[in-house]
Specification:
Layout: E1 19-21, H1 29-38, E2 43-45, H2 50-55, E3 58-60, H3 64-74, E4 79-83, H4 87-105, H5 114-124, H6 135-153, H7 157-161, E5 163-166, H8 173-181, H9 205-208
Parallel strand pairs: 1-3, 1-4, 2-3, 4-5
Organism: Shewanella marisflavi
Protein name: Sulfotransferase family protein
Length: 232
């Protein structure tokens, strides 16, 4: 896979706080993650060990979208970015993703990481409903997640200041993200947008994208591959 043209930037130092991307899968988490890499941040797209979270400037996808409350407790000064997407586009995209993932999310035999399974079950009830791919079920999951996120981050002015909601295809979304996380981004005269990755049925763009600032989701540290000890 060829990398997209880098976003023109000037970058002055790493962000002062951790950044968590808490949008659901198929809302643009890969595109945001790549954009953050191009801004000079160390990024983990999914993080299943303490070391991955600790070393990354920004973490996206699982388990962030299910664990944002606990991550806020661990990193009370962090910034959180919610990604929105119209339901008529998100639902079929999510159905496509689940059609590929469900066999690997199997509670007993699935090969996916236990934290990924937990996040998907918590948010989408994949072990608790007859058909996790049902359109109405997915709509409800999306709406409940969005409502809970907004209620959590609007419970106080301090929390609200740590929170940004983005729809990636909206004008100025990239510059809004850069401003929110404190990156000085110099945008060229042509319109600068998020890279559009994982188009259509593509679900592996992050694995194929090569960048020296990528953080391995399963990075080992002083405690090997342990994660934080909290419950959701």
């Amino acid at each position: 896979m060829k990398s997209h043209q880098p976003v023109p930037t000037t970058y002055q130092g790493r962000p002062a706080t951790k950044i968590f991307i808490i949008g659901l899968p198929r809302t643009g988490t890969t595109s945001v993650s790549v954009a953050l890499l191009e801004m000079g941040l160390r990024v983990a797209h999914q993080a299943f060990t303490k070391q991955a979270v600790i070393l990354a400037d920004a973490v996206s996808d699982a388990p962030c979208f299910s664990d944002y409350r606990q991550l806020h407790s661990l990193y009370p000064d962090a910034k959180f970015v919610y990604l929105d997407r119209p339901l008529d586009a998100w639902v079929p995209s999510m159905q496509m993703l689940l059609s590929r993932m469900l066999v690997h999310l199997d509670q007993g035999r699935g090969r996916f990481h236990p934290l990924l399974k937990r996040s998907f079950d918590y948010t989408f009830g994949i072990y608790r409903v007859a058909d996790p791919m049902d359109a109405e079920h997915l709509k409800t999951c999306y709406q409940v997640h969005k409502q809970q996120v907004f209620e959590f981050f609007h419970q106080s002015q301090a929390f609200t200041q740590q929170f940004l909601s983005l729809q990636l295809d909206q004008p100025q979304s990239l510059s809004r993200l850069a401003s929110f996380i404190g990156v000085d981004i110099a945008v060229a005269s042509s319109e600068s947008e998020f890279p559009h990755l994982n188009r259509g049925r593509n679900v592996a763009s992050w694995d194929e994208y090569k960048h020296e600032l990528k953080i391995n989701s399963n990075l080992a540290g002083p405690e090997n591959r342990k994660y934080f000890n909290y419950k959701i």
